[in-house]
């Protein structure tokens, strides 16, 4: 329902404001002009929250790059743009919402499908981080219901290209994203990105991660989808350095071994793994665990037996591809740990989800793509 013309003050990056007379449309039955509605002319120009697209992008980028919303507010203030903390929060929140809403639209498909991957090796990895989420407590309301701040595991993914030396190719930006909504949502995100990339002429695709069961259950679903699209070799690999940690854990459980023997035993198993002697390593583990009643020792042994097909380090190294998930560990640190994780910081789940998206695109160098998602593909998002 058209509520008539109203004057709206639009903010610009330099801190100036411009009054514009535009029509306001509200839902039928909304009381006066306070009902939920929109300004169609501004909406089509990409102007939301009384901010130009460039200003909204810069506010959201500052919120993602800096340590807090308060620092983002101070930075914008130093540029002459006076905003309170609530305004910074709302602009950031809605910018992220529009970007996520436009994720399945044309901007991301066009941008990623143009990247040249012919004859390249692509690596996919996923892992979990840690942050604290605020949720209300159940019970009788007295002075205040209170809340709890439990630790949650945001799940991240990274897709990147390696060069001829097996290192991350700096010429092609990685794809990083994350979610708090569990493995199913992570699979959906991976499906979006892999569906947008032109993988038909890729040489090899490598999944590398630690041994968490949820990761490899997710990988099987993604692999089934890829098998329908590509004919290249698809490899699965447990991160070598996580495997070494399990070797050390196994050796530490052998109390009758001396410290020197444990160290020598682990060094030998590492060498065998790198030489492709997986069968021999498992035989050594079985021999060491024989007759033991330790449940922990048996658990470590089962870890290696279960993942024996994902220990082909010699084959992967020969293909000039990484045998570790260092890029994923770095992404968790840069995206989650340096912004969202702290004993004194806790988030509402929705806010954490939005900040994960902003931070991931900022740290991967794909902020321009995020802006396209927010303003070209996000027209269907209800701002």
3D architecture notes:
The protein folds into 3 domains: 2-101, no CATH class; 110-238 and 325-364; 242-310, no CATH class. Helices cover 46% and strands 17% of the residues. It is built from 15 helices and 10 strands. It has helices at 40-44, 53-65, 69-78, 85-101, 106-113, 183-196, 213-227, 240-252, 259-274, 278-289, 295-306, 313-318, 326-337, 349-363, 367-375, and strands at residues 2-11, 17-26, 37-38, 121-128, 131-136, 147-152, 155-162, 175-179, 204-209, 233-238. Strands 8-7-4-9-10 form a 5-stranded mixed beta sheet, sandwiched between helices. Strands 1-2-3 form a 3-stranded antiparallel beta sheet. Strands 5-6 form a two-stranded antiparallel ribbon. It starts with a strand and ends in an 8-residue tail after the last helix.
Number of helices: 15
Question: What does the main sheet amount to?
Answer: 5 strands, mixed
Beta-strand content estimate: 15-25%
Tertiary shape: elongated
Oligomer: single chain
Report how far apart the termini are.
Answer: 17 Å
Biggest β-sheet: strands ordered side by side in the sheet = 8-7-4-9-10
| Count of strand segments | 10
The overall pLDDT average reads 88
In short:
With 383 residues, this protein is an alpha+beta fold.
What are the SSEs and their pairings?
Elements: E1 2-11, E2 17-26, E3 37-38, H1 40-44, H2 53-65, H3 69-78, H4 85-101, H5 106-113, E4 121-128, E5 131-136, E6 147-152, E7 155-162, E8 175-179, H6 183-196, E9 204-209, H7 213-227, E10 233-238, H8 240-252, H9 259-274, H10 278-289, H11 295-306, H12 313-318, H13 326-337, H14 349-363, H15 367-375
Parallel strand pairs: 4-9, 9-10
Antiparallel strand pairs: 1-2, 2-3, 4-7, 5-6, 7-8
Helix pairs in contact: 2-3, 2-4, 2-14, 4-14, 4-15, 5-15, 6-7, 8-9, 8-11, 10-11, 13-14
